Amino acid sequence: MGLLYLMPVSENEVDRVEVKNKAIHLKSYGLPLVFWGYLLAILGVIFIMAIAIKDPVLSVLNGEDEINRLLGIGVSLVLAIIPFGLLCFFFYEKTLCKNDLQLVVIHKVFWIPVKKKVIHLKSKESFTLEHYLDSPNMARLEGKLDMKGFENKGYFELFAISSEDKLIQIDRCSQRRELVKLKEILSKY
Question: Which H or E run contains 161?
């Protein structure tokens, strides 16, 4: 999720970083404002669709045919689930809590913890950074200067090394320096 939900990379972030009792708590940033515009546009289209099909769906729901009623229920559920699912993306938050050899990763939706993972680290600095390039880098292979902006640079992933020598993904980002700074902050505490 680190490609969309960025983690703070400095201890000076007032509302996203909290240091207390030799522990650090990092909260991810929300989506940029442009995505809220996309959400409003999508919700507007769904609202117009719901108004346009309200009468036919109500007549199908009140009808006698069982299959048509099931289809009406299905359409109504889809029109309710899509906006709720989209809102879940906008109210998602990832929290990293690091204290000595313990790292806790908490995923929250609407400020409610949904998933919590406790990782016992091998050492305080047991984090590693890896680079991934999923597709062939055709722009680089051609070697033309005008294609330089289209080169696939891939993405980077930050892993924690657990006490059982397992790699557990913590975050990912397209910019290496962001994850290096995050790794340094987590290694301090």
Answer: strand 155-161
Give the number of other Cβ atoms within 10 Å of residue 119's Cβ.
Answer: 19
- Of residues 123 and 42, more confidence is placed in 42
Residues in the chain: 189
- How far is residue 107's CA from residue 37's CA, in Å, rounded to a whole number? 24
pLDDT in tens, 70-101: 999 999 999 999 999 999 999 999 999 998 88
Percentage of the chain exceeding pLDDT 90: 48
Angle at 36 between CA 32 and CA 41, to 5 degrees: 145
What six digits make up the tokens of 19? 């240091």
SS3 2: coil
Mean pLDDT for the stretch of residues 8-35: 86
**Could you tell me if 2 and 171 are in contact, meaning their C-beta atoms sit under 8 angstroms apart?**
yes
Tell me which residue of 135, 175, 171 sits closest to 28, measured CA to CA: 171
Q: How far apart are CA 172 and CA 178, in angstroms?
A: 9
